[in-house]
Write a structure and sequence with these properties.
Helices cover 64% and strands 5% of the residues. The chain contains 14 helices and 3 strands. A 3-stranded parallel beta sheet has the order 1-2-3. The radius of gyration is 25 Å and the shape is flat. The two termini are 46 Å apart.
Length: 272
């Protein structure tokens, strides 16, 4: 289909992430284009950056305002962390030092906007700056409760496990090395996908320690395919096997101790 080819060419040219096509909004957009018919003009840079952006901001504000009548009846919570402010608004704090005083100022603005009488608690992560801010806010608003984010707390605990226990730390580092190496080399990645029937390995998120254990689980589930990658004559004769990083990954995959450790970490993952 010519239209698909044009869409794909544009997506490749601008580096659009492939997973955006899975969003239901992508099909909705395509339907709208079809309903307009032949010769639909594309929105301009100004339309996207100013006109349409302004309209969407207004629509979002109306959506938020629709909840305001319920605040007095049901009460609400304020959630805040380093990257995401409350649902009401986002604030670009990139030029500011994220200290306790800044956090207090930001949260107080929202408390004023929502109304202290309509708020039950404020939820933040467990960083030292938020803990200091908590004490200040509780003194200023004695009827409010501070609740630490459970997900962030678990993330920090898992981070301690992954950073302070040498055997686990080394196993995680080796697992990441394998995944990074495979995904950085197209030919090896292609062969892996052929062996796994296009099943992907899990890649860790640098800001979430828990994802490292899912990488371990993914490595374990595909251990036989990964071992096959680095054993055959095709690998031995390739340029990859002659380079230091290739030799390092091959040594990791060949170590029985690594796979024994992976197996024990998978048990930990299944218990999480």
């Amino acid at each position: 289909m010519k239209a698909w080819d044009k869409i794909a060419s544009w997506a490749y040219l601008v580096g659009l992430p492939f997973n955006v096509v899975r969003d239901e909004g992508f099909q909705d957009m395509t339907n709208s284009i079809g309903e307009y018919g032949r010769g639909m003009p594309a929105p301009s840079y100004h339309n996207i950056r100013v006109t349409l952006m302004k309209k969407h901001l207004e629509d979002t504000q109306k959506f938020v305002d629709s909840f305001r009548p319920h605040w007095e009846e049901y009460r609400c919570s304020i959630m805040s962390d380093f990257w995401t402010y409350v649902f009401l608004k986002s604030i670009d704090a990139s030029e500011h030092v994220k200290n306790a005083q800044l956090i207090v100022e930001m949260i107080n603005k929202v408390i004023k906007e929502v109304g202290e009488e309509n708020i039950v608690q404020f939820i933040t992560d467990n960083g030292s700056n938020f803990k200091v801010a908590r004490k200040i806010l509780e003194e200023q608003h004695p009827k409010l409760f501070w609740t630490p984010c459970a997900a962030h707390c678990v993330n920090l605990m898992i981070g301690d496990i992954g950073e302070k226990i040498p055997k686990i730390k080394n196993t995680l580092a080796d697992a990441r090395a394998i995944v990074v190496y495979i995904y950085n080399h197209g030919r090896i990645l292609k062969l892996m996908r052929k062996l796994t029937k296009n099943k992907e390995l899990h890649r860790s998120c640098v800001t979430r320690f828990a994802t490292q254990f899912y990488t371990i689980k993914s490595i374990h589930e595909n251990r036989h395919h990964i071992q096959v990658l680095f054993v055959p004559e095709e690998w031995k004769k390739s340029d990859f096997a002659k380079k230091s990083i290739g030799k390092k990954v091959e040594r990791i995959v060949a170590k029985q101790e690594f796979w024994d450790n992976v197996r024990s970490k998978v048990w930990v993952t299944s218990m999480m």
